[in-house]
């Protein structure tokens, strides 16, 4: 309640040019209060409560306030829960693509098309050749399968997507059926760190904004390279922290604090840099490694998402989705802060698996 009151005060007294951000913060704070209100009143009517449940709730609240790192199991369970609860809201507001958009020019307003363009521009950047298109694609961290189905249609190929979220896998298969793509695109619940595929199964391994969720980046890269066929293309598009300067041992405490808060909201482990990914790929024997920073290209995305949520439908959706989604919405402001500070980067990395 104190946070909401403070936000409201800033909204009234702050710089008018940032009022849409302040209004957004007010809205999600008050949504959080409303989301908790039923549990407060209900608790007065209960005569007993599970001791484990109380202790678990207290621990989660304490860890959240302290931005404490989660265990790998907590991350895995939390990711599935977060996306089970939030994916429907995202689809209702933004559609089937659960990733950033391509903002060139930066003032474009066709946001759904910007998301589709991001897929095509990344493929073009990675030199995926339409004259010699991929035949078998794996989408690692597929969401509800938007990019998988787009790639399957674009190249007339097979695409398989994996996610930790049962809701996302089911919804991905539903959309594939609705779009007449059941024979080309399929989705299942699986762990990206232990994929249920044979070695050398795919000539295109696609990971769009899922690498940030991986607690073991070494194992993640190992799995991407394992399932790639010799001569196959691997594409990783992910949030990273900035590269460290020569002689710089770590990020600053201020930068680490921003990332820690985002981690709690989005169920993320420790971040790494694009340079870290390139070194891991080199150790796996990858060739033709290429990298680029597209932070400036996707920068307008977060403000567009925030603006799109400033309506009754989105606020009601937040309430229905629960506290984890509300907290994720608040973290958008932290993402903006991280981008503006230069600590968060939108990194592209691609490489080829060496032929035997």
Can you offer a commentary on this structure?
The model is unreliable at 1-52 (pLDDT under 50). The chain has helices at 2-13, 19-45, 51-65, 72-94, 111-125, 146-155, 166-178, 217-227, 253-266, 274-283, 295-298, 300-308, 312-321, 323-341; strands at 136-140, 158-163, 185-189, 202-208, 228-241, 287-293, 344-352. It contains 14 helices and seven strands. By secondary structure, the protein is α/β, with parallel strands linked by helices. Helix 1 runs antiparallel to helix 2, helix 2 (19-45) packs parallel to helix 13 and helix 9 (253-266) packs antiparallel against helix 14. Strands 3-2-1-4-5-7-6 form a seven-stranded mixed β-sheet, sandwiched between helices.
Short description:
The protein is an alpha/beta fold and 356 residues long. 54% of the residues lie in helices and 15% in strands.
Structural features:
single chain, 356 residues, alpha/beta, 7-stranded mixed β-sheet, 14 helices, 54% helix, globular
């Amino acid at each position: 309640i104190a946070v909401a009151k403070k936000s409201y005060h800033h909204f009234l007294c702050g710089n008018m040019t940032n009022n849409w951000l302040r209004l957004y913060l007010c809205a999600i704070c008050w949504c959080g209060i409303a989301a908790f209100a039923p549990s407060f009143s209900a608790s007065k009517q209960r005569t007993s409560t599970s001791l484990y449940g109380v202790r678990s709730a207290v621990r989660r609240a304490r860890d959240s306030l302290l931005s404490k790192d989660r265990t790998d199991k907590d991350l895995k369970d939390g990711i599935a829960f977060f996306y089970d609860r939030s994916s429907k809201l995202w689809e209702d507001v933004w559609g089937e693509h659960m990733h950033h958009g391509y903002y060139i020019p930066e003032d474009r307003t066709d946001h759904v098309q910007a998301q589709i363009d991001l897929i095509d521009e990344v493929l073009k950047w990675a030199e995926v050749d339409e004259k010699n298109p991929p035949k078998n694609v794996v989408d690692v961290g597929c969401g509800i399968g938007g990019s998988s189905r787009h790639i399957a249609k674009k190249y007339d190929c097979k695409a398989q997507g994996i996610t930790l979220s049962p809701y996302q896998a089911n919804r991905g298969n539903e959309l594939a059926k609705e779009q007449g793509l059941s024979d080309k695109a399929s989705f299942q619940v699986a762990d990206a760190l232990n994929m249920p595929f044979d070695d050398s199964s795919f000539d295109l391994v696609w990971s769009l904004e899922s690498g940030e969720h991986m607690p073991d980046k070494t194992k993640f890269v190992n799995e991407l390279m394992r399932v790639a066929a010799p001569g196959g293309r691997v594409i990783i598009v992910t949030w990273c922290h900035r590269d460290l300067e020569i002689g710089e041992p770590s990020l600053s405490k201020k930068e680490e604090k921003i990332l820690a808060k985002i981690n709690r909201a989005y169920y993320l482990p420790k971040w790494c840099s694009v340079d870290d990914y390139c070194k891991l790929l080199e150790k796996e024997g990858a060739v033709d490694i290429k990298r680029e920073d597209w932070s400036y290209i996707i920068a307008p995305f977060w403000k567009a998402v925030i603006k799109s949520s400033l309506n009754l439908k989105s606020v009601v959706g937040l309430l229905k989705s629960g506290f984890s989604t509300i907290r994720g919405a608040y973290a958008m402001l932290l993402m903006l802060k991280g981008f503006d500070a230069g600590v968060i980067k939108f990194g592209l990395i691609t490489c080829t698996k060496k032929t035997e």
